[in-house]
Structures are given as structure tokens and as C-alpha cells.
Specification:
The chain has helices at residues 2-13, 17-39, 45-53, 59-75, 78-85, 89-125, 137-162, 165-185, 197-205, 222-245; strands at 213-214, 217-218. By secondary structure, the protein is mostly helical.
Amino acid sequence: MINLVRAEFLKVRTTQVWFWLLLAALALSALLVIAPLASGDISTERDAAQMFANASTAYIIVFVLGVLGVTTEFRYQTITASVLTTPSRWALVTAKMIAFALLGVAYAAACVILQLAIGLPWLATKHLGVSPASPDMPRALLAVFAILALFGIVGLGVGALLRNQIVAVVLGVLFLAALQNIVLAIPVVRYAWPYLPGGSTASISAIDRSTDNFGGVHLLPVWGGVGVLLLWAFVPAVIGAVYSMNRDIT
């Protein structure tokens, strides 16, 4: 299994996609710090913790990375060599899930480090003595790591199910960035929003639980958000593995 995970890292490292997606994640994370600080929206330590927790918004980029991690192999038929080397497709899917969860952690670390490098000195000028050990900060930073790690697996699952690279990326990003927010705006179905990826992510990253009302919909508790996001991560991956194991890969 260790060799399979190393092989997945090698596949990612030999392309430039991971680098450009990492730059996109860093740019988004920097913007999520600069914008609230420049506008004066951060006035308390809890506000600052929530600001850093918002780095989890980069989950869309990690999702795309996960989708490409499996659809690219089908597109260029490198999946054939992978399966010939490892006939057990369960082992192959498991290795991919481990590798892309770790890549999500690596992206989270890069985003968090950049945000802290920008945000902490800026907060000091506002006389807010925030540090990674400040109240609410460990929870905020841990939420970023958990969310990005799980969304690497979510992307793999969607990619394994759809297999078509363009369809998987476009539909996935459209759903994550727009469609699930439309659900929140529709009175009849808005109560399903906490069980969607965006709602479960908000449940995990929300720092001030006294204001967890989103358009009349309350967030799940943290453990509930984690549970729902785990289902979104592993159910599509397992279904995708079963689907691929019962079809010819060529």
C-alpha cells in the first residue's frame, strides 16, 4: 500500500496541475485575509479565528485536484498500467484516497501558513494579539485541515463516478459554488442545505455557534458536519470503485 501511495504522489508530481491549483488556493486564501482586514471587519479575536477558518473555502480547488487525479488516468489511459500493476482496484482506490487526503492536508498547511504570515502582523497593528494558540484558533486551523483533506476524497469519488474530466469538473464546481447556495435560497428545500457539502463545511468551520443561522436554517453540530462530510467523501469513492470494478477500463 505504501508503494501505491508513493506512485500516486509521483503521478501528481510529474504534472504541473498541482502547482497551478496550489497557486490558486494560495491566492484565494490570501484574499480571504486581506479583504476583511482591509475593510475593518475584524474587531475581535473570534472574528480573527473565523477569518482564518475561512481558508477552508479552498476546498473547491482541492476538489478539482481530486477529480483530475482519477479522470486524467481515464482520459490518457494511464489507468490501464495502474490496474495491470495492481489488479485489486480496491487497493488502487484506497491508495488514491490516502494520497489525495494527504495532498489536501498539504494544501491546507500552505494556505494556513500564508494566511498567518499575512494576518498575524496585520492584526498586531490593530492591537489584537492573536496567535495560533489563542482561543478558537486551534479549532479554526484544525477545521481547515479536516475539510481540505476530505474534499480531496470527494473529488476522487466524483471523478470515479463520472470518469469524463470536463463533465466532472464543470458539474462539481457548479454544484459546490452555485447550486447548493440556490438550495439555501429556496424555502421548500433550504433545510437540506446543512446536509450538502457547503452546509457541512460551514458546520465544521463556524466558530461562533450563537450565530449559526443561515437564512433560517441552523447548522449541524461540529460532529454532525464531520459525519456528513465523511459520507460525501467516502460514499461516492466507494460507489465509484464498485462501478469501475464492474466495467472494462479501456
